[in-house]
Predict the structure of SDR family oxidoreductase.
Amino acid sequence: MEEQITETQKNLTVFSLEGKLALITGGGSGIGFDIARCIVQAGGRVVITGRREQPLQEATNVLGERATYQVNDVTERASLNKLVERIETTVGPIDILVNNAGINLKKPALDVTDEDFDRIVHTNLNSVFSLTRACAQQMMARKSGSIIMISSMAAYYGIDRVVAYAASKSAVEGMVKVLASEFSGNGVRVNAIAPGFIETAMSKTAMSGDPDRFARAMRRTPMGAFGKPEDIGWAAVFLASEAARYVTGVSLPVDGGNSIGF
Ligand code: NDP
């Protein structure tokens, strides 16, 4: 038996992100905003990005002095090395990267144009690789870092009318395993979170114009309700923290039980 549990241990400091800096793409709204909020609540600092300045400004006002923003479009891949360089020079070393920015398109597969397909894959997959590579170079040199991809249960199930989205998220899941394997020797962990139905603008749009879609979604969800963005935020805090120091290469479903299957 080890010595008595100390006061520090009682305060769960193993989940603390004190002294850590996180870069969160798409952090001005939806799931990304709550990931930022949970990381700040856990003691960390955040830099959030997005294409529009106003939501980023509003979000940082709410998050307080430990949050700053950079206007950045992740699809402009040539800008991503510079983004990382700028943050590392002006704010500090990036300890945690959350690849959250993502877009969806709800269309029957045969109506999806090449341009549609490329746009989704470019945002949800290609840019994720470029930004991850830029951050990982720095993290590997410091022998420490946590990279988190926001995937989707659409990577696992045949959800109709999201062919490009599902393809992009499945590919991200594959990338997680390879990068986790390549980076683990240098103290950098790579994991994914696979959200189920979460209450955000994106899921509202996906449910719109199809009254039966919500009922079908709930039939697939044993817990019988949508999740909240902060449910993803706390999972991200766990994966970024010391509590997950032996966790790499996994995809954590946060989905009210969708992944139990039927
Ligand atoms: P939202 O549409 O509510 O938010 C998306 C965020 O990403 C916005 O802040 C947007 O800001 C930003 N964004 C979009 N494109 C870009 C870009 N090219 N460059 C930089 N930022 C961008 O979506 P959610 O919060 O619902 O989704 C967040 C993540 O969670 C996505 O990866 C999504 O696939 C995933 N997910 C969501 C689920 C859900 O039920 N909501 C379920 C499963 C996965 P701006 O427009 O200003 O650029």
